[in-house]
Write a structure and sequence with these properties.
This protein is 83% helix and 0% strand. It contains four helices and no strands. The chain has helices at residues 3-30, 38-70, 74-107, 120-144. It comes from Mycolicibacterium nivoides. The chain crosses the membrane at residues 6-27, 48-69, 75-94, 122-144.
């Protein structure tokens, strides 16, 4: 394996690890911590996911550049295309709805509950699962070479 593909493998598994750690461990657990209100949890979540999505975008660009230079198999390119597309849908279509919902919740006085529930969170999680499978597949295919 050449150095460029080794970097792509490293970036892939760093990206995968970050998604698993933040989306499936940190995000749900923060709301169970003592003293963390819904408003505090949402405020923390917005900051954490903004940072995660920024790093994910940088990782996606690094992988795209590397794949363009080294031309791996069609299956590998497809796996990464799915991961990047899932990220794009999250950033362009789902995150704005989540931001709108969290703004509504944060605007409500403490002790009161915001009207209605958003399904956007479940859509975001579904795309996280798609990304996890695509990144794992793409990373394994790069390693198999």
């Amino acid at each position: 394996m050449n150095a460029g593909l080794a970097v792509a493998v490293a970036v892939t598994f760093c990206w995968l690890g970050m998604v698993l750690a933040i989306s499936f461990i940190e995000a749900p657990l923060k709301f169970r911590a003592p003293g963390v209100t819904l408003q505090i949890g949402l405020g923390i979540g917005r900051m954490v996911f903004r940072a995660l999505n920024t790093v994910e975008t940088a990782f996606a660009v690094a992988i795209i550049v590397t794949l363009a230079m080294h031309r791996p198999s069609t299956a590998t390119i497809t796996a990464f295309a799915i991961a990047v597309a899932a990220l794009a849908v999250q950033l362009i279509a789902v995150r704005p709805k989540l931001t709108q919902r969290s703004n509504a919740v944060l605007a409500v006085a403490p002790g009161e509950e915001a009207a209605g529930r958003s399904q956007a969170h479940y859509v975001y999680v579904a795309f996280e699962l798609i990304k996890v499978v695509a990144l794992l597949t793409g990373g394994v295919l790069l390693l198999a070479g």
